[in-house]
Amino acid sequence: MPLVAFCFAAGHNGGMKKGMPKYLTTTQAGRLLGVSTFSIQRWFNQGHLTGPHLPGGKRWITVESFLAFAKKHEFEIDPADIRTTRD
Questions:
Q1: CA-to-CA distance for 6 and 17, rounded, in angstroms?
Q2: Sign of the C-alpha dihedral, residues 17, 23, 25, 26?
Q3: What are phi and psi of 51, to 5 degrees?
Q4: How many Å apart are CA 24 and CA 26, to the nearest integer?
Q5: Which CATH number fits domain 23-84: 3.40.50, 2.40.10, 1.10.287, 1.10.10?
Q6: Planar angle of CA 70, 59, 49, nearest 5 degrees
Q7: Per-residue tens of pLDDT for the chain, all 87 residues
């Protein structure tokens, strides 16, 4: 199944490297943090992670929100890992 959730940044990208995905799925975020998808969904619903909530219950998490959350909660994330994460 192609990864639809990877939308690549274009133009001004808030300091993200060119080619870095703009969004992560809840599964990708969970894998990067080493937590369950349910934890990611809960944090999204509580507003700790942000991004669009799509029809059918899908959630896309912005990379900026994800990295800020990881830093605040002292998860060690290498931004380069985000580029290679796949569902």
A1: 14
A2: positive
A3: 155, 180
A4: 7
A5: 1.10.10
A6: 25
A7: 223 333 333 233 444 556 556 899 999 999 999 999 999 999 999 999 999 988 998 999 999 999 999 999 999 988 788 864 444
